[in-house]
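Q&A log
Question type: sequence-to-structure
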Amino acid sequence: MRKVFPPEASADDDDAPANGLPPLPASTRNYMTPQGWHTLRAEFMQLLDEERPRVVEIVSWAAKNGDRSENGDYLYGKKRLREIDRRIRYLTHRLDIAEVADPSVHHGKDQIFFGATVTYAEGDGVEHTITIKGVDESDSLNGEVSWVAPIARALLKAREGDEVQLRTPGGLQQLEVIAVRYPAPARP
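Response status: OK
Response body:
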């Protein structure tokens, strides 16, 4: 009896994020805040220095136990090792092309750039606050959006008091920029 397994991920899939994020638009930079870069770097180092060696040890131990076809530790370990290696390749690529942009250099300014925390009002007066971050570090549940998101692109370069238009599936939406904040520079 032959077992059929789905094909392994190819090297072309390395830029496809494992976390479901869309890839960067063609010919753009991978902007990141310093905190985002450190978070990705920490994940990379944890996978490389801790998790991968631990899984390799388990797979090695399981391989010594004989029949690998029904060895759950071996099969699961090999699968987990492939997942870890794919994530390591992805993180390596993303960190290599990262361009760290410190938003604190704009502290005190009222124009919207990467890293800004923006409060805006929709046409019906409902206010929202978002922070514009990198593709790999944004978290919509915490009010963070990627700089390539339509809302971020509509707001970029606007100033406090400006009105901008956001194109949505329901039509054009008027937004008024109420406040723009940047983190304070770190003290040496």
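Response note: The chain has a mean pLDDT of 86.
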